[in-house]
Amino acid sequence: MTPQPAELDRSTGTVPARGGPPLLPDIESVAVVMVTGAPGTGKSTLLRAPAGAGVTVLSATCTEAGAAVEFAAARQLLPVQPRSGTQPAPADGGHRTVLHLYRRALGLLQFGPVRLVLDDAHWCDSATLRWLHYLLRRCTNRPLQVVLAVEPREHPALDPLFSDILGGPRQRILDLDAPEHAGAEPRTDRLRRFLSRQPNLLRVAVAAAALQQTDADLVGALAGLPPQLTVARLATLRNTGVLTGDPDRPVPPAVAEALSGLLPADELQRLRRRAAHMLNDADAPVRHIAEVLLDLDDLDEPWMLERLREAATLAYAHDAPAAVRIWTRLLAAQPQSPDAAVDLAVALLNVDPSAALVHARQALPRTGDARTKARAVVCLGLAALVTGREPTAPYLLHDAMETLRRAAGNMPSLRDRIQLSAVESTLAANAVIGGATFHTVRSRIGDSPVGVAGASSSHRMLAVHALATAYEGVEVEQATRYARLVLDRPVTGDSWAPLIATRVLLMADDTAGALTAASRLAAHHRDRGEPCAEAVARATWARILLEIGDLEAAWTEATTALRLAGDGEWGAATWSAQTIISLINSSQARILAAEQALEPMQERTSDMPLWEQVQAVGATAFAAYWGQDHDRALQRLRACGRLLEEAGVGSPAFSSWWLDEIIMLAIRGQRAEAHLRLEQAEELCQRWRTPRTAGMALLARAALTAEGPNVELLLGALAELERSPAPLHQVKAQLMLGRTLTVLGDRAAARRHLRDGMVLSNRLGYTMLAAHCRNVLSSAGGRTGTELAACGELSSSERAVARLAAGGATNRQIAEELFISMRTVEFHLTNVYRRLGIRRRDALAGIVEATPLPRRTTTVATAPTDGSAS
Length: 870
Known about the structure:
Elements: E1 32-36, H1 43-48, E2 56-61, H2 72-77, H3 95-109, E3 114-119, H4 126-138, E4 144-150, H5 161-165, E5 171-175, H6 179-182, H7 187-195, H8 199-211, H9 216-223, H10 227-239, H11 253-260, H12 265-281, H13 286-293, H14 302-316, H15 320-333, H16 338-348, H17 353-363, H18 370-387, H19 393-408, H20 414-433, H21 438-445, H22 455-472, H23 476-487, H24 496-507, H25 511-528, H26 531-547, H27 551-565, H28 571-587, H29 591-598, H30 610-626, H31 630-647, H32 657-667, H33 671-687, H34 691-703, H35 709-722, H36 727-744, H37 747-764, H38 767-779, H39 796-806, H40 811-818, H41 822-836, H42 855-862
Organism: Dactylosporangium maewongense
Protein name: LuxR family transcriptional regulator
InterPro entries: AAA_16, P-loop_NTPase, Sig_transdc_resp-reg_C-effctor, TPR-like_helical_dom_sf, Tscrpt_reg_LuxR_C, WH-like_DNA-bd_sf
């Protein structure tokens, strides 16, 4: 009987696979296909499948190295013809290349259907994606199909252009992991059916998966085959996609799991045990031995535990999650071992400090050894620095230190001295961030850091001295020197010390150093796979960005910190990030959102370390002020002052609460109270003198001085603040100076300062402050629109989009003219509206210079050479 051709499924554009592998959709029905699936699911086989008679197939494989090269993938698909002579690349942003590739594709389409296949498209360069989007929009009626194969689960987020390419009506996504594409039978059954008639092939596949090796001698010995036969079967497994070319992971995890399901459990355990012995006898890398040991049900031989400990120690240096996984297995093998519980707690410190607290607490009652107890208590104290105030931590640390001193005797060993230093530095760290008075901390740590045993303890104690000196508010240079000593050394263990050093640099106006340190620390923990420590570093990074007025970047880092924290009880990350988000919302007139961001922290304010506590209370004052609840704002500002006074903090750079309080008291006529606060603040600013504190002190003094004499104070404050990383206070100075000059009758000078303040606040995103500047500028007789065009605050991309929009071009026309996506146009326009302080598109015409849409763009859009609609 002659087989009938399969009927085309019009709903999906595919031919049913009848239990076999899926097929690519028909070119006439589907223009874009995204193929996704883990290694071993048949993705490569699908891409190499015949396309049918008359179809031109052009393929390219994207690489991570080529992701940064413009048109790298496009030139694989359509190789550039060599030409004589050298022609300089046109400085047109790739427009000519896009048009050249477009014309070459049109030439191929004249001879029949064309399929463009990009494997590993997650590494595709943006220029090629832009060209594909351009090509698809102009070939809607042509037999063209673009196939993009990606592995999103194992690579970074896809380029936003993927969404634009997949935005058309004729697109399909083939997920090879989904049951409808993988077939009704599970992957184990498909592998069993494939390997059932070739038992030797099955034995080699399972042996390679158990060993995670493709060495013919080892695999053959485990499979019971000679190396010659093993080599041939390994080649067969590579051709069928069971094995990959990755030497570190030759069998993908999904395939290894499926192969494991082909053997009975007891036989699989015997095979894995034998594999572990073979790898150990062959002196294989300890991480490979550990991977096999982790899958064993019983670790009943001493060498097995020893190898796992070695692997965990090595993994902790670069891959914290791997170390956590190994220590978790070791604790499961020795559930009553306090040392195993402490080792796991230490590995969890930067990954999940809440879990570290649990394991550290569990280890304490299991041991009577002073040294093990000290390790557990240090881990508990370090976890408490991240999760929030732990009331028992200081008492446990003090008790552990006394017990260890008695056990060490009069001549402690180096190991005991290192442990004593670890306990003492952790106790000092908990004291200094928990709100203990400066004198209490100083009485414990001394006036200057002395020689401390152990790198981590030395870093921690230096950071304690840096923060204590900054709290005292006397020696800016000394505090900065201590902080830089911490940051000049590599990060070892927990990241509390470099984070504190970063905060000290911020208080000393060294924002460049603080930004570098925070970004480097976030990258360090990201590379090590430590989400908690990365979240805390990003929250600190966001705070620095907020201080220098980069609200957009601060919002990005704060939301990233919250995403990394998830549901984790990581107070140092979540509290700081929520506070920053609330401050930005308040600055941009989203008062309800600002208050909602602070609500989860209201009941836990007393649990916060002093830094987070003051910042959170200050954020509530900020939200109340812009919400017109000035009484509550003043109340919360005073609460900030009480918190700092009780802790003995004398640095005016810790928070600007005192400046806001003085200005509010002056406005409300409470001048006596304002003068008292001013005298205190000026004394502190003289002791901790930086451009920011000097400018803030002059600003506060000007608020309590009559119009006329205060002009010189305001000009001095403005000069100091322009040298400082405090643009918010700079805008306040411009606003106060503009108001004063307006009252004095110098309206021209007033308008100049108010316009500068309005432009700066608009650029930074301080919507509410910009509105104040705009209102005062209007009352001073100034215009608030056309002057902004000369400010040059827009980026080149934003200016190009804004000028075309002002000339009447639609978003689609702008996208086609500039060869960018519609989403990118909308993004730039949103930024333009925010920076210029406008809300409507038609307002652009009076602010920026309009650029008419070029005639050539209209020609291309309305009359394409292939005769298709745009």
